[in-house]
Amino acid sequence: MIDNQRLAAALRSFAAERDWDQFHTPKNLATSISVEASELLELFLWSRGQKGWEEIATTPIRTKVEDELADILLALIRFADKAEIDLQSVAEIKLAANARKYPAEKFRGSDRKYDE
Amino acid sequence: MIDNQRLAAALRSFAAERDWDQFHTPKNLATSISVEASELLELFLWSRGQKGWEEIATTPIRTKVEDELADILLALIRFADKAEIDLQSVAEIKLAANARKYPAEKFRGSDRKYDE
Amino acid sequence: MIDNQRLAAALRSFAAERDWDQFHTPKNLATSISVEASELLELFLWSRGQKGWEEIATTPIRTKVEDELADILLALIRFADKAEIDLQSVAEIKLAANARKYPAEKFRGSDRKYDE
Amino acid sequence: MIDNQRLAAALRSFAAERDWDQFHTPKNLATSISVEASELLELFLWSRGQKGWEEIATTPIRTKVEDELADILLALIRFADKAEIDLQSVAEIKLAANARKYPAEKFRGSDRKYDE
Known about the structure:
Number of helices of chain A: 6
Helix content of chain A: 55-70%
Largest sheet of chain A: none
Order of helices and strands of chain A: HHHHHH
Distance between the termini of chain A: 35 Å
Radius of gyration of chain A: 18 Å
Shape of chain A: globular
Oligomer: homotetramer
Strand content of chain A: under 5%
Number of strands of chain A: 0
Structural class of chain A: mainly alpha
């Protein structure tokens, strides 16, 4: 479980205590998510696909990965809180839409979705 | 609450049914999070900061925002699942680190953090 | 003038001397452009649109901006060189396409293009 | 050669005719470069490194790649023009800095630069 209410409340207090709410516009928080996501991606910048899940199980890269995932999640929860969007609910809707969009029998083993 | 175990399990089945697990390398999933985050950002591309939270409360932009937030969350949960990282736990650790890094009394009302 | 032939040749020698050509796949160079672009964006992360061109005319931010612009340009030139794409030519084609897509009389003073 | 003066002048007229200069703040143009770079990256999203330069030599992906490279270059030139930064000059400086930072004899054949 991700207790996003609890995390959102903590982020709300954090911003209030520093008077940072003024900076938390939709565009700025969207920029923040994007910049944090790019920092995660940078950890794999020159990898030619050879870096697998077992290789990121060990430090120091694991610590960096955890750090970036946390940044992305917190920025995402802050955005959703300000926008009053229920993340679980929109994720469920998207899962159902994806199942309709990519029928298993049609897309099995194919990367057509990806590269078409 | 975000039931990330449930969402991760659904994503696991989704990938297995389509034999897409082979595409879900660390680099590819990191790319996916970044590309989805950029699609959210694109909704605010030319906004000069004038677009506030009340303006994204209405459709059609709200639907687009929800859609992109869902994509980001699902890609993030899929990455964390493959990497066996507990998102709630790393988020809590990060919150505590941020509180130490930006003492309220020192950073109040200031955007120094942001721009230096 | 940007002497992209000269810069591309320098980048070719640079990669050859270090045996780095193997890392310069389409995906990796595209990732590189994106990551560098995000580093430029990060310089303006929390700005509420109040940061204008005069403010980035002064150091230290100017030096950082120059550094990131250089990184983006070099990655872009390296990609185009490997792909054998003439940047001037595709830019001219795009300019003409944009002029047709956004007729001045229809889009004047409007940010409709941007936010629709 | 990239005639960036000519392209910058065309972009200046283009913005003036539509009264779009008001949208071209540092942050917005940086966002624009980043979003365009992400659209290039998206073309290689699920590729496992197997997509090589010969594969992007053919349409339709070549046309898309050309289109995205053009968008990135134009946004970059527009930013540099507004900031009064000489792209050729900063690129030369960066090339020299990279040569010092990554001595060939030390980094040959190694992806150490990339992954640590």
